[in-house]
Amino acid sequence: MDLSDHRIVEEPYYRAVGNEVALFEAAYAARMPVMLKGPTGCGKTRFIEHLAWKLGRPLVTVACHEDMTASDLVGRFLLDADGTVWHDGPLTLAVRHGAICYLDEIVEARQDTTVVIHPLTDARRVLPLEKRNELVRAHPDFHLVVSYNPGYQSVLKDLKESTKQRFAAIEFGYPAPAVEAGIVAHEAGVADDVARLLVRIAGSSRNLKGQGLQEGVSTRMLIHAGRLVALGVPVAEACETALVLPITDDADVRDAFSAAIAASIG
Amino acid sequence: MTGSQEDAGDLSFSAVERRLKAYLVALWGLRVPVRPAAPDAVDGVPRRVSFGDGLVWMPETFRGVAGQRAADLFRASLAHVGAHLRHSGPRFPAGSLKPLQIALVSLVEDARVERLAMRGHPGLFRVWAPFHLARPGGAATAPALMARLARALFDPAYEDDDAWVDKGRRLFAERSARWEDPSISREIGNLLGNDLGQMRVQFNARTHVVEPAYRDDNAGLWDFGGDPPQGLEAETVYEAFRTEHEEVEDGAPQADPGPTPPEAPPPSAPAAPPQAEEILAPPVRYPEWDYLIGRERPDWVRVEERSAYEGSAASIDRTLDRHRAVADRLTALVRSARVSRPAWLRRQPEGDRLDLDACIEAALDRRRGESPGTRVYATLARRHRDLSVLLLLDVSASTSDLVRGTTRTILTVEREATALFAHVLEELGDPFAVHAFRSNGREEVRYYRIKDFRRPYGPAAKARLAGLEAGLSTRLGTALRHAGRSLARQPTHRRLLLVVTDGEPSDVDVADRRYLAEDARRAVLGLSHLGIDCFGIGLDPQGRTYLARMFGQRNFMVIDRVERLPEKLPALYLRLTH
Asked: Is pLDDT above 80 for B147?
């Protein structure tokens, strides 16, 4: 089986903020597992898509969730007319065929699920399939990447120390205003002045982080707002729809954010 | 705005305080404590917002302004103060300036900071413009001319035929490249002051009121040295005194700027509640961490477990009824969070294992020529929540303060929050305990078990909760150690200690503000070695610094509206543990 469906053909747009591309390439060269840290919507997933394209590797993405079991990752027996057949899970596929396996939001998975990656992330680079009694040796090109949003305030949702310490980490934040405006202008197809205005508005919401907002407006949300503006929606309404209403239900914080948006619009 | 009558529909600042503070945060990231400005003794003088030394004083109401207009005025006032805080430099030395010059320099400075603020946030024009009501014409009195000048500097589209106003506008515009520089306010103000003096226009410093109404009284712009003139700073001095007075009454010092003198005598112990408390268990001694010597003082503190005074259990049930909507919402949340014991569910259409029995039956069916069943998987139901939690309440004297804008005390709100919390925990089935503490020096840390692990949350526990009274001080670290001792005996996988506190740790025998906070931090670290997670819930909006110091950056939360604690606390617990 080849992973042609998982190959990224066209270059995904990604604007580098710092030296993250060089760091990742170095980690890939050493096949060192990488953890992408940062708040939601700041470009972690886009980054890995871009790098998979750049390195010419297929990308197998798994969105982790609480009910995910180890067999969802490594595979399971299915039944057909003649009996049982083994079906590789996404992780096993990537290990066998040399893809980049990207476990998105790994803390969402239960801790006992994530330990299956341990033998893959040290010198052994093997994946034991105990149900099949098989030891899969990782393809030389196999690379493991996880994303992790440290903003969660949950004592139960954290990575095990033994999992954390297997990764090199690259930190993502919101880009500098000029860079972020460039990203918004490119992705949403709006003029530069609109993009700069949206980024200033995002600054207001990021000021409110911890003062009623769990998290500030992400670059992704700005792009949503920008797309609405590109389709002819007035800026104030686009911000209300794409930024204010989704981000909070707290009437006072909404009011403050809306008023700050009004103050930013000339 | 000549304050004619009190409008019945006056909107007070506290109604919009939270959203306006958030507005200031959103615009400039400014977190400034806002205090209500007391009514002015000088009657007939409309009051203005004031700021200085890291505080803002806002009138509770603006006379004669009601409804939406009042809300707009509060917003405009706070935005104006924000512009000052953002763009004004250090205070101007007043030196030998005359009151007229001071007023004019302040006026130019107001315009300067607003123009700078509008560069970043052009929409602020719409916030301030409705209050610029001055028009050309009329008598050329100083107040009228100054109001016209204020408008001319603010609004480029405003037209005025007065030569003096026009000169002011020209001087200001000529220096537009230097607007960042506060000294231009002095230059322009002095030039205009000389002109106004030559025009022989009368200026009365005593009756002068800054126009438009949203602008501040300028007290925060000037350094009068040791010789404050009447009218401008009198109110600030009064306010500073008032703030100090409040601090003493609080018992616990608030996080106001300004260091406490190290040799300050400890405040006298607040009176303990009158009920007789019985000591239930042999006292226990704990060490205390002294950050100055970098070691623990062994057996330094003595904890007495005392019986809590019993109140009316029915009042707790009534609390639940009063918060029925919240309780119902939480119950629904709990239902989605509650999980059963681990179990294999057999004969499932999908799952992560084959169910061997079902497979054999399916194979038999096939060989008999019948269509085999497809429900041949087994799946593991969700894990049991293996978690116990201890809620530790601070019932020191400061919890008898009223929550701002309400008639309820902080303790009342804590009690309501605990009632809802216990209700949720009962639904959820997680083992939990509720304890409370206060202290009276290191030999007398009082500890109350309201509800213990493995005891039912019944009428007796509710009565103890209802009977909680405020008094004495907050020796947090010791209470944490004692609570940790109970929690450490819990056989669950995770153990969580939730602490609700309304202020910085303090006690009558400790003058160093840092000492008890450092000890609490030490206690939290010690508990995390025992596998106990501590999470602090602060009711003091200024408490971020010390809460972060004690509990760690991620393990605390500040409830900025205390009255919302009852709904926040159980929701927080569910979020932390789900």
From this structure: yes
Chain B residues near residue A76 by CB distance under 8 angstroms? 352-353
In terms of pTM, does the model score above 0.90?
no
Burial class (CB in 10 A: 0-12, 13-18, 19+), B552: middle
Q: Which residue of B has its CA nearest to A205?
A: B26
Residues whose CB falls within 8 Å of the CB of residue B443, separated by 6 or more in sequence, listed in order: B301, B302
A142 close to B (CB below 8 A): no
Residue of B13, B16, B21, B23 to mutate, testing the A interface (most A Cβ within 10 Å of its Cβ)? B23
Most confident of A152-161, B257-266, B540-549: B540-549
Partners of residue A59 on adjacent β-strands: A100
Q: Is the pLDDT of residue B248 over 50?
A: no
CA A210 – CA A233 distance, rounded (Å) = 30
Judge whether residue B341 has pLDDT over 60: no
**C-beta of residue A161 within 8 angstroms of C-beta of residue A110:** no
Inspect the interface and report whether the beta carbons of B576 and A156 lie closer than 8 Å.
yes
Residue of A nearest to B555 (CA): A153
What chain B residue is nearest to A75 in terms of C-alpha separation? B352
- How many residue pairs from chains A and B have C-beta atoms closer than 8 A? 105
Consecutive H or E run containing B76: helix B67-87
Residue B529 burial (CB count, 10 A): 7
Chain A contact set for B79 (CB, 8 A): 263
Question: What distance in Å separates the CA atoms of residue A61 and residue A75, rounded to the nearest whole number?
Answer: 15
Q: Up-side HSE of residue B279: CA atoms within 13 Å toward CB?
A: 10
Q: Where are the alpha helices (DSSP H) in B215-255?
A: 234-250
Mean pLDDT of B36-48: 61
Q: Does B288 touch chain A if contact means CB atoms closer than 8 Å?
A: no
Please give the Cα distance from A135 to A61 (Å, whole number): 22
- For residue B237, what pLDDT is reported? 36
Digit-coded pLDDT (tens) for B437-489 = 999 988 889 999 988 888 888 888 888 888 888 888 889 999 999 999 888 88
3-state helix, strand, coil in chain B (%, to 5): 45, 15, 40
- Selection from B50, B474, B92 nearest residue B270 by Cα: B474
**CB distance B345 to B441 below 8 Å:** no
Does B126 sit within 8 Å of A262, measured CB to CB? yes
pLDDT at residue B118, as a whole number: 93
**Interchain CB distance below 8 Å, A155 and B576:** yes
Q: Which residues pair with B35 in a beta bridge?
A: B57
Find the Cα–Cα–Cα–Cα dihedral A57, A63, A68, A70, rounded to 10°: 10
Contacts of B20 in chain A (CB under 8 A): 256
Compute the distance between CA of residue B48 and CA of residue B219 in angstroms, rounded to an integer: 11
A-interface mutation test, from B352, B494, B556, most A Cβ less than 10 A away = B352
Query: Could you tell me which chain A residue has the CA closest to the CA of B352?
Result: A71
Q: Quick check: A208 and B382 CB within 8 A?
A: no
Which among A209, A215, A255 is the top mutation candidate for probing chain B, defined by the most B β-carbons within 10 Å of its own β-carbon?
Answer: A255
Four-point Cα dihedral B509, B512, B516, B522, nearest 10 = -140
A153/B575 CB distance under 8 A? yes
CB A95 within 8 A of CB A62: no
Predicted ipTM of the assembly = 0.80
pLDDT of A90 > 70? The answer is yes
Report the phi/psi class of residue B510: left, alpha or beta, with left for phi > 0 and alpha for psi in -120 to 50.
Answer: beta
Residue type (1 letter), A144: L
Among B270, B574, B576, B537, which Cα is nearest to B410's?
B537
CB-closest option in A69, A155, A263 to B494? A155
Rounded Cα gap, residues B125 and B121, in angstroms:
8
Measured between CB atoms, does A155 come within 8 Å of chain B? yes
